[in-house]
UniProtKB/TrEMBL annotation:
PANTHER family: FK506-BINDING PROTEIN 3, PEPTIDYLPROLYL ISOMERASE. This is peptidylprolyl isomerase. GO terms for biological process: asexual reproduction. It catalyses: [protein]-peptidylproline (omega=180) = [protein]-peptidylproline (omega=0). Its EC number is 5.2.1.8. One of its GO terms (molecular function) is peptidyl-prolyl cis-trans isomerase activity. GO terms for cellular component: endoplasmic reticulum. It comes from the Eukaryota. Residues 43-132 form the PPIase FKBP-type domain. Residues 1-20 form the signal peptide. The chain crosses the membrane at residues 149-167. Keywords: Isomerase, Membrane, Rotamase, Signal, Transmembrane, Transmembrane helix. InterPro entries: FKBP2/11, PPIase_dom_sf, PPIase_FKBP_dom.
Amino acid sequence: MFKLSILLLALIACFSLAFAQEVKILNTNIPAGSCQDKSIANGDRVSVLYVGKLEDGTVFDASEKHDNKPFTFVVGEGKVIPGWENGVMGMCLNEKREFLVPYQLAYGEAGIQNVIPEKANLVFTVDVVEIEKLSEIPLLYKLIPTRETIGALIIVIGFVYIGKYVLSAYPSPVDKKVPKTKSADKKKK
């Protein structure tokens, strides 16, 4: 029972850590009729105009700094920070959204020297200017695991091995075999 409760506490801690790292949508503006055909899904090529700010409002990057050219990426390829991929998921063409990315889904504990401080939560304002539906790809390609899926699988495998180790290192009293004594053998005869 003790081993099981330790294992459950470890699982709860892992899940609470995973759920604490969520992108928070702060504001969204969807023009009327723009969300009828397409919304962003994993595997879509997306072009956006954006402004990236620290929580104090300091702009660290924006489309304006790049001649106002849209930034294009494929959702799910891992070419941008995970918080961006999560933040744009489900957006529609011409939708403008502001979202908060926790540091765990941004640049982590280290940040980027002289640009983004350590453990910096980021605020992005993103305007979707184009969606190319690449998510309608054959099933075979959808079965290829993403970076997040592989990471989750590694965590699950780790917990299985930790659980096996705990169970083998600390056997329960029920599992222990009691050695036979001579007096018990004499009673049987």
